Amino acid sequence: MNPSPVEAARPRLGTLLLRRGALLAFAAILLVFALGAPNFLAPGNLANVLAQSAILGILAFGLTTVIVGGGSNVLSGGLDLSVAANLGLSAAVYATLDNAGYGAFAGIGLTLATGLAVGLLNGLVVVGFRLPPLLATLASMNLVAGLELVLTENTVLPSASPLLEWLAFGVWLGVPALAWVLLGVAALLILLIDCTPFGLRLYAVGEYPEAAHAAGIAVRRHVFASYLISGLCGSLAAFCSAAWFSGSTTGSGEMLLSVVAIAFLGTIFSRRLRPSIGGTLLATLLVGFMINGFQLLNISSFWVNGLQGVLILLVVALSGLSRKEP
Amino acid sequence: MSAAETPPQAVVLELRGIVKRFGATRALDGASLRVRRGSVHGLVGENGAGKSTLIKVLAGIHRPDAGSLLVDGRAHAHFDPRQVERLGIRFIHQERLLPAGFTVDEALFFGQERRLGPWLDRRAQRREAERLLEHWFGLRLPAGALVGELSSAEQQVLQIVRALIVKPRVLVFDEPSVALVRSEVERLLCIVRRLRDEGLAIVYISHYLQEIEALCDRVTVLRNGRDVAEVDPRATSPERIARLMVNREVGELYPKSAPAPGAPLLEVRGLGRGRAYRDIDLRVRRGEVVGLTGLVGSGAKELLKSLFGLAPPDTGEVRLDGRPLALRTPRQAVAEGIALLPEERRRQGVALDLSVQENVTLAALPRFSRFGLLSRRAERRETLGLIERLRIKSAGPQATVRQLSGGNQQKVALAKWFARRSSLYLLDEPSVGIDIGAKAEIYRLIGELAREGAGVLILSSDLPELLGLCERIHVMHRGRIAARFEAGEADSDKLLAVATGAVAQQETSVHESIPG
User: Complex ipTM, two decimals?
Assistant: First the structure.
């Protein structure tokens, strides 16, 4: 004669709306653009959107991994605000090394190491000192952005290595290299997070740390790993960025908001409304198509920012609704 | 069942003279436990007796300061969690520690995944989950069902299956029945017996002595960090076990309540809310303890919520001290001097991460502030007074409530309203999940409240508790008050008969002699 059993909860209206609605909305947006702009659905244009989305997408994958491992609570969960700044620093490192005449391997290796080092720093601060990720990565973002300024003196460092050439102009099966990079990184991370024990444990660690601990999972090691992956994503995106802009650029930090928006938007594309690489890929493409569609329709791209803001609010509000206890 | 106790079986697990200190306090002071193969070994003790510390030592979470752990006669100085798992000791935790957003097979296998090379073998996991659930429990769950969509009992089953996957030799159940209703408890007991018959050694921790009596072959009683007795529960009365636990008579579990109730405090007439309840008439006078009970869905819980301003009623009237009251929010209710002790103690009753002092003064902060500034001294004085009066066992006013035992958390939740000087107390399952010693204290406090002129309305499904405490008991069935009983004219069977609808409505009971 103790507390009543929990009633089996049915998926609530908000949840259903989100699950079905997100894909419908995606399709509707594509349809509107297709009708409004004749070349929108041309294969060349679609491939172009994929390539343009590579930078934001790869950064968002990193952030998504961190959110999976830290929990999707925006304030106390996993968050890596340093991804965009990491890209800036990594690109600057690559351009500097390339211009200084280092070989391809040294350049690529040290750039990846830069990204990993940023991830290591975040991991140490979040896992080692137990600082809230929001503050910890805000601090590391500033640190990393500062280092980039020291290195570049706030100028553009042009660079044109064979790797960048290939990334910028390479085409395979009619699809540009950057698009392949985006899909390749997505595929690797989907394999890692959806198909290995590590991924399952990462989800457990993120949303249910106590359960994970009780199951004998090394919680802190998994969280640490998620920041390393995010750091690596930062430097991978740096190659794409350096290829796109033919060198390092200033102001990479401005991408941060879009990256955060995409990662959270991604949750509505997953069946269980949780962060996932697949969902983030769809969200990346949605934002990419919107930017592209607006360009084709001659609408100012400033509107895209506004629309992203509205989408974030919508996602946060709806997921709040669907999670609320009756 | 009797076959299991005849041959003396091998001791699988033995803890000898375990000592564990936390700062100055000795949580364990030489506790021992011997568990045999193919037997269920009960572990009982008051909150604070050291049960959970002992379990945590066994689980490798705490490192003992002295003592030894023997598995199959081989001694270990201490365990680490991985080692415990390798030795085949598994735990079914009290709190359902399963990820709500995971599917059934993910929840069963996370941390102990089936692999195919480097990959997760989801198909094998699904197949095996199905097989295990069917084999052990005859249970079929819809494919892809999420843990959060299952009932408490089903989640409990998942925890057990999770532990069985690695073919354990010792299973430790830590208060497994707390979240289950009676029929589910029966099922749980059957399952435990079956596991025992398969040769497992089982440690079963419970507050419910009936369960211990029905299930266990041996029971160890812990008191003050020591094992004070090991007895055969079938040959020992629950009263004697309870006495061993608390080392005092528990006969006076229920206080003698105030003899002469005063003026009417709460008057409810014709209250109704949608399909939840209707035509509710109810009176609580000052100095009176009134009971309310009913099955899930009877509307009793909603009624209590309405009286606290949650879920406002659509019809009828509520008077407090003779004044009509339109309760629409809990804020109003608190301002009127109404206090609610919610059933969900850990979520709604206390703020777990705040200190005892912060919890106690939370509802009455204006009393402790001058010119808008809080006087820590006044807060501290009040808290110390209440800690003493309610006998809250804690490291002091600054101790975090999370560190307290369930019974002491409940006392803190109650102290909050004491500090507010509330006059009407609505208690929702006040003794759920707390041990017999703490129960007696809570009951004593309820009696004290009544003597001081407060009115108390208790919603409980623990019928002996209502019979022991209340002057009048209202039984709800399908949204109506199906019967009222005066103290002394009711017993558990009568109450249950009305609550389940086995007896037709007897709306006008013998005494409806309340003035007004």
Answer: 0.78
